[in-house]
Amino acid sequence: MYSILELSTEVESMTVYVKSKQVVIPGEPLAYGRYEYQGPIYVVRQKLYSKVIGIVEIEDKKKITLIPLKGKYMPKEGDVVIGKIVDIGITGWTVDINSPYKAMLPVSEVLSRPTDAAKLDLSKLLDIGDLIVAKILAFEYTRDPLLTIKESKLGKITKGTLVEITPVKIPRVIGKKGSMINLIKNTLNVEVVIGKNGRILVVGDDPLKEAWAVMAIKKIEKEAHVPGLTNRIKKFLNEVKRGR
Amino acid sequence: MTGKALVKLLDENGLRTDGRKLNEIRPIKIQVGLLKNADGSAYIELGRNKIIVAVYGPREAHPRHVVIPDRAIVRCRYHMAPFSVEERKSPGFSRREIELSKVIREALEPAIFIEEFPRTAIDIFIEVLEADGGTRTASITAASVALADAGIPLRDLVAAVAVGKIEGELAIDLNGLEDQYGEGDMPVAMMPSLGQITLLQADGRFSGEEFEKGLKMAIEAIKKIYKIQKEALKRKYIEISKEVLEGE
Fold first, then answer.
1. CB–CB of A179/A137 below 8 Å?
2. Long-range pairs for B65-70 at CB < 8 Å and ≥24 separation?
3. What is the pLDDT of residue B1?
4. What is the pTM of this model?
5. For residue B203, is it within any domain?
6. With contacts defined as CB-CB under 8 Å, which chain B residues touch A29?
7. CATH fold of the domain at A15-68
8. Are A232 and B248 an interchain contact pair (Cβ–Cβ within 8 Å)?
9. What 3-state class would DSSP assign to A119?
10. DSSP character for A174?
11. What is the mean pLDDT of residues B142-153?
């Protein structure tokens, strides 16, 4: 690559080129200077650029956060994800976790007692097509992610409704300190399990309530970049509840 | 070929066969996200060119032996539909299509943060529905928009245009006729906000002066195309915002 732009002659010390809550695209300059930043941003000669389509947020004129609007899930150690069994091997299962990498779930991370996997019929424990809530035990880029379901609240899913959304919008579904998800939980009286990989499980005593929660989550996904989201969701939930 | 063209490409007013001035690009329309199966997609109309691009990935790379341990592989398929040109084109891959697939891939790859997705593949499918000169540059323009729509991290969008020589004069964005009977063709692709060139080819003859002037013209045009790419990408989200805010 050959650069034809004159070397940076800018004299300005700290400048922000964008407004808060603005939609930006890859390669769009965000700011110049020593800013703190978070999200898919890269820096060339003190100039901050966006890597993806996203929304910028500027906090106290010193920190720039970029929230992407689309993207794949990249596994991270400790994340709770919702996976689907796609293959059964000799010593474990292969699990689709809605990511570019297939995850492995060994027998030792399912049963607590030491077992001889060869003598076991694994399909009796978990069969192809089964959905599980699992935690990522280990992941480095050279090996496929490793899952476990040995902790509490993890394991096979037996009831509820599953929704799939863009993984990057999971933080919006959770909200600040869980405000958004608690709003859905409390208003509709349902249990919600969020997989960081974009899959969300809603469990309620009434299928109708589950459907409403799914609608609310879909609405969050669609309107995540429009300000005033919490109020709109609040309004939406109250409306469906009253309309019953 | 000599300086005298077989076909009259410039009229007495200095206008081209389609009525454009020498430094005028054809009208462009870009649409984003029209394919639901693909992770990202874009459709471009550049004059009479119609091209659709689908992007998948990053996803698991198959077959296993193509995997690179520390970054993603980028695969690109440029294909022309049998009905895209006047005389039916054989639907298989011609030498030209295989070459263009490689050229387009190499023009896009520098923009992608491939090192963030080791052992995966990013697939770009380019289907030319109608061709009228400059499909490679239009494909690059559309493919970079589709990559951005897929949420793949990019250093910048890549915009491309060709500059050529007709009847001894430099002209931007050659159409099919000018490409066929002109004296030179020089496609340029670049990442506009970084000012970096990712593709530069040329056939025909350009003097040093012509080359420099041509490159300047190309960069001017690329900036215009870049603006249209930006608008196309943002339009989708701005429309949702409008719809939601009007509903209140």
1. no
2. B66/B121, B67/B119, B67/B121, B68/B118, B68/B119, B69/A142, B69/B118, B69/B119, B70/A141, B70/B115, B70/B118
3. 47
4. 0.91
5. yes
6. 193
7. OB fold (Dihydrolipoamide Acetyltransferase, E2P) (2.40.50)
8. yes
9. helix
10. H
11. 97
The partner residues of A96 in beta bridges, in order of sequence, read: A84
The fold adopted by the segment(s) A80-156 is OB fold (Dihydrolipoamide Acetyltransferase, E2P) (2.40.50)
Q: Which pLDDT band holds residue B57 (cuts at 50, 70, 90)? A: confident
Q: Reply yes or no on whether the pLDDT at A191 is more than 50.
A: yes
> Does residue B173 belong to any structural domain of this protein?
yes
Domain containing B79 — which CATH number? 3.30.230.70
Query: Residue B63 belongs to what domain range?
Result: 28-246
Per-residue pLDDT band at B195 (split at 50, 70, 90): very high
Q: What is the mean pLDDT of residues A9-24?
A: 79
Residue B232 maps to a domain: yes
Give chain B's domain count. 1
Residues of B in contact with A27 (CB under 8 A): 154-157, 191-194
Look at chain A and count its residues: 244
Using CB atoms within 10 A of its CB, is residue B234 exposed (0-12), middle (13-18) or buried (19+)?
A: middle
Distance CA A185, CA A164 (A): 18
State mean pLDDT over A139-164: 92
Only one residue has tokens 């054989």, namely B90
Given the structure tokens 């770009």, which residue do they identify? B124
CB contact under 8 A, A4 and B151: no
Collapsing DSSP to helix, strand or coil, B166 comes out as strand
Min Cα distance A70 → chain B (Å) is: 5
Return all residues near B222 (Cβ < 8 A) that are at least 6 apart.
B159, B160, B161, B188, B189, B190, B192
CA-CA distance, B107 to B101, in Å (whole number)? Answer: 10
CA angle B86, B87, B93 (to 5 degrees): 110
Residues A117 and A140: their CA atoms lie apart, in Å, by 25
Pick the CATH number of A161-242 from 3.30.420.10, 3.30.1370.10, 3.40.640.10, 3.40.50.2300: 3.30.1370.10
Angle (CA) A197-A157-A165 rounded to 5° is: 30
Evaluate whether residue B4 is within a structural domain.
Answer: no
Q: pLDDT tens digits, residue range B93-116?
A: 999 999 999 999 999 999 999 999
Q: 3-state DSSP helix/strand/coil percent for chain A, to nearest 5?
A: 25, 30, 45
Q: Which residue has the tokens 């490679």?
A: B136
Do the Cβ atoms of B119 and A28 come within 8 Å? no
User: What's the rounded Cα separation, in Å, for the pair B158 and A105?
Assistant: 41
- Give me the residues paired with residue A44 across strands: A47
Cross-chain Cβ contact B57/A100 below 8 Å: yes
Cis peptide before A68 (omega within 30 of 0): no
**Mean pLDDT, to the nearest integer, of B40-53?**
97
Beta bridge partners of residue A49, listed in sequence order: A29, A42
